[in-house]
Write a structure and sequence with these properties.
Helices cover 19% and strands 43% of the residues. It is of the alpha+beta class and 89 residues long. The protein has a five-stranded antiparallel beta sheet, with no helix packed on it.
């Protein structure tokens, strides 16, 4: 889970679980991200840099702490999908 810090030629994000700063290539999502947003995504090496790959989900501000707690517990993929799924009923 990453907080977007800066969007320019590259995207600077802060890993909220590891408290590390990463610089990503902005080719895929740079134009859609805004500083301050929190996203659940996977950053992987692509060519000479890092890039978000796969699904990218914007996390609502009210859900950030709950998602950090969930991710700290090493959830299954199903647990993460359920977190983002709308309530039944």
């Amino acid at each position: 889970m990453y907080e977007v810090v800066r969007v320019a030629d590259t995207v600077t994000v802060r890993d909220l679980l590891l408290d590390e700063t990463l610089t990503l290539l902005s080719d895929m999502v740079g134009g859609t991200l805004k500083p301050g947003q929190v996203v659940c995504a996977r950053a992987l090496p692509v060519g000479d840099g890092l890039q978000f790959v796969g699904a990218l989900v914007v996390v609502k501000p009210d859900d950030v702490d709950d998602l950090i707690e969930l991710l700290d517990g090493e959830p299954s993929a199903v647990d993460v999908v359920e977190f983002f799924s709308p309530p039944n009923g």
